[in-house]
Amino acid sequence: MDKIVDSLNNAYQDFVGAAANVLETKEASAGQKTAATDAALENFKQKWELFRVACDQAEEFVESVKQRIGSECLVDEATGSVAGKSGQTSTTSLPPISAVRLEQMSKAVRWLVIELQHGSGASAGSAHSHPSAPFDARFSEDSAQ
Question: Distance between CA atoms of 127 and 133, rounded to whole angstroms?
Fold first, then answer.
């Protein structure tokens, strides 16, 4: 994380420095378009693009951390791990499920989302037969579907 923050900070400092250079160059040329102002503007454009890339990378990192935290919280909630932490009590009346079962259900949901996004028009039952998202007959809720 420190590397991402440092990268973002460096890109920002370079961007601000390039903006200041554009202003200084323009002032030195009395507002006239010169090779120096063109070079300063080109440098500014490059620094802007690098800053945007650094921002995108930081945003991707934040999103991945949010997803990881959300997944960990979901697993904790589903497996009943939350109730044992810091004296917290679980407010749900649902019995805990295994992490393996949760992963199977998660894969099935992901495949349904992918099918819906691609507009396949496939029925919900088609996800049950997808090899990457198998439903396990050992679980009673699967055999009922």
Answer: 7
